[in-house]
Amino acid sequence: MKRHASRVLVALLLLGCVLGGLPVLALNNGLGQVPQDLDRTSPRATAQGFLDAVHRGEYARAAHYLYLDHLPAAEQPAQGAQLARKLKFVLDRELSVDTSALPKTPEGEPPNSRFASLGAIPLKGESVPIRLQRFTVDGTPIWVVAESTVKMVDPLFEEYGPLLTETLPAVFFDRTVLGLEPWQWLGLVVTLLSAWILSYLLEKLLLAAALRVARWTRITWDDQIVSAGRGPLRLPFFAILLALGTSFLLLPPKLKLLSDRVSYSLTIVAVAWFILRFLRVSEAYVQSRVTSESSPHRRARSLRTQLAVLRAVFEVATYVIAAALLLMQFEVVRNVGVSLLASAGIAGLAIGLAAQKSLSSLLAGIQLSITQPVSIGDNVLVEGEFGTVEEITLTYVVLRIWDQRRMVIPITQFLDKPFQNWSKGSPEIMGTVILQVDYMADIDALRAELDRILANEGKALWDGRVKTLVVFDVMDKTLTVRALVSAANSSKLGDLRFLVRERLVVFLRSKPQWLPMVRSESRPAQPPPSRDDQEEATQGAPEPRS
């Protein structure tokens, strides 16, 4: 009885010392020698050291950060390691500890405070505080996880711990590899495989149902939109299933953050991917509808140009927004970008000038699609080159020249400098054929030959609107004759001009007297003057003045 009474007295004295903040002789004697690099001098050091140790799987080291004196000394090593492991899972799942907000001084805040709060975790309608407590060992302040918190670790672990603790063998829990226990690695592999398989099945099931509904309508656009979802629709399903699966694995904060960012990034990529497909499908559908309807050819080409440019604008916007959303989730990238733009004046100016040029090209492409000075399929004359507009982008225009060469022209060329658009307005066009003939040529006969050419060989090319032949200019030796003809479009006009020029030349060859010729005039030679005439001319000449 006396021995029991003495033990009770010692325990009461020890409890009084603890509650009163008085020095204690030792702490966690059953754990053995405290590692020399173990820092427990402040709440911040204790919290950071405990989290680092448990996430490395060093549960025996983490036990030194717990108050274990309520346990028998012989049970402290095994029980301490298990309690540290269980507390890790509880904190990782339910409480995000911000160690930077904890006091970094031994006295705590306010000074001489014996407790530091990490937060609270709900348990069966109550709130369990997670606290650190200060002791003094050999005159040195020591901060450990409070006894009241350590005693609640088991109930908290039963509520928030892994679900497979009682079903898997102990080998899956007794060690860590790269910060994860074997059961977590197994669960991660199963989660990835099952998420991919389930996302594939969900995609096929949803697309099959949507395609069946889309076939009830007469239009084909919705069928194409449903088909465009094959691929992009799988990524959101995979991201959602991955987030749900990893939430049960109780991953460390860094891996949990990585998993969340992967899910978020996959969702952004899926949305951007679907938008790009949506734009292309919509553009192709509108073009097919316009082509199938009896709309003017000029209107169809104009609409095709507008759709191509607008699709390019929206695609660039989609890429930019998606990239911005992906980078905004990384704090380091966001801070670096803001710092560079705010502090580097010369670099910021250079970037601004470069962006201004790119923005001007982008605005020029938008203005080109709205004002329509040139469209895809137009026949234009630019920089002395004649060709057909084959492609229009946000920065350049591709011109297919008549000899099959491709001429790439900056898009600002069509807004800043003049050019000829032979397809603007009505495609009907007129052209000239210039010939040089002699003054003796019969102009009426040439007009009759022009009528014959257009009524016979050029019947398929001439549109019947304009046919004239006039003396365009009078030169010292020849006449300039101009034949003016018209055609339905520039392509036919070129062939018609070649034909008229060739046939008129053949006709002039049959009348050689009408061809340009050089004439010369000869006069009889005069006899030389006689000697008497020369003397008379000399006498009649005035005398030179001195």
Automatic annotation (TrEMBL):
Pfam families: MS_channel_2nd (PF00924). The keyword Transmembrane helix applies. The keyword Kinase does not apply. Keywords: Membrane, Transmembrane, Transmembrane helix. Its main location: membrane. It comes from the Bacteria. Residues 517-546 are annotated as: Disordered. GO terms for cellular component: membrane. It is a multi-pass membrane protein. This is Mechanosensitive ion channel. Belongs to the MscS (TC 1.A.23) family. The chain crosses the membrane at residues 183-202, 233-250, 262-279, 308-330, 336-355. The lineage of its organism: Bacteria, Pseudomonadati, Myxococcota, Myxococcia, Myxococcales. Residues 358-424 form the Mechanosensitive ion channel MscS domain. It is found in: Membrane. GO terms for molecular function: mechanosensitive monoatomic ion channel activity.
